[in-house]
Amino acid sequence: MRRSLLLLAGALSLGCAYAAGYGEMPAAKPELGAWGVDLSAMDTSVKPGDNFFRFVNGKWLDKTEIPPERSSIGAFQLLRILSEKRMKELVADLQVKPYASLSPEEKKLRDLYEAFVDTKAIEAAGLTPAKPDLARIAKVKTLDDVARAMASPKLGTQSIFNIYIGVDQKDPNAYSVVFTQGGLGMPDRDYYLRDDAALQSARDAYKKYLGDMLALSGVNPADAAKRAEAVYAVEVKIAQAHWSRAENRDEDKTYNPMKVSDLVKFAPDFPWVAFLKEAGVPLKGPKGERVIVVT
Fold first, then answer.
1. How does DSSP classify residue 243?
2. Minimal CA–CA distance to 177: which of 104, 284, 27, 94?
3. Are 105 and 11 in contact (CB under 8 A)?
4. CA 121 and chain centroid, separation
5. What is the pTM of this model?
6. What value, to the nearest 5°, has the Cα angle with vertex 212 and ends 211 and 218?
7. Do 239 and 189 form a contact (C-beta atoms < 8 A)?
8. For the chain, what are the domain ranges?
């Protein structure tokens, strides 16, 4: 996943530079008129007070199928599919051109793609590219070490917190450092906690996946399943502390600005300073002590 995201980010940035040479795209006629709302998707047989979601989207839901290779479909997924198609066309165009004729940006894009699909070289390298990261993980001993490993942008591990910078929820003129709940390998808490046959199958498959990944990383296969259960047990405890999707949609409940010193008082057993420093978040902001918005 990490390599896929890096490839996508690189391709997008280089692809934008490459596409810039073709000038601006001509303005297209709006498909849905000046208003931009697809009224044909509505099911007006449903009273909006009974089921507003169905009232707005009913006909679209009835005629739309999720592609078998996708987990969902909608406007943003369609944009992603279109972006993937365009990136593929950009790369295909570069691959038929003489390499010497390419610009530096075009060479980078072509090299990046060809390295990504060179499965023989990837298999030949084995775990060698990951050894520095695995060695660092093996050296983790203290809580500070754990916090730094979770926060390290270079290591790219998952953390019990997702951290990003975005427009402040209450002040559109300011940006905030935001912490959101994280630490789960499956989509959300329900995958761990809800009593459901389909989710139980997902849990079993996920635990097998954890064991397989541990074995591939060098763990003794005889111990991998046991260690996978231990990892899963930790994730269950994290899931139990997570808010539900409904709670996470509460804009007031999810807006909790706290100074670093407040975070330390709120959860004194977690090494916040070590975590923030490794993540590259200065402890001081423009107006004094750094404020973190905890959601």
1. P
2. 284
3. no
4. 27
5. 0.69
6. 95
7. yes
8. 2-125, 132-182+247-294, 190-241
3-state secondary structure of 285: strand
* Distances in whole angstroms, Cα of residue 267 to Cα of each of 151, 175, 262, 263: 17, 24, 9, 6
Please name every residue paired with 198 in a beta bridge, in sequence order, or none if there are none.
Answer: none
**Token pair 């923030």 is at which residue?**
276
Q: Tokens representing 271?
A: 């090494």
Amino acid identity of residue 14, one-letter, is L
Q: Which residue has the tokens 């004729």?
A: 101
- Give the β-pairing of 288-289 and 284-285: antiparallel
CB distance 151 to 159 below 8 Å? yes
* Helices 2-20 & 104-117 angle (0-180, nearest 10): 150
* DSSP codes, 9-60: HHHHHHHHHHHHTT-PPPPPPPTTTTTT--GGG--TTS-TTT-HHHHHHHHH
pLDDT tens across the length of the chain (295 residues):
444 444 444 444 444 544 444 455 566 676 666 777 778 899 999 999 999 999 999 999 999 999 998 888 988 999 999 999 999 999 999 999 999 999 999 999 999 999 999 999 999 999 899 999 989 999 999 999 999 999 998 888 888 988 889 999 898 998 899 999 999 999 999 999 999 999 999 999 999 999 999 998 889 988 999 999 999 999 999 999 999 989 989 989 999 999 999 999 999 999 999 999 999 998 887 787 788 888 8
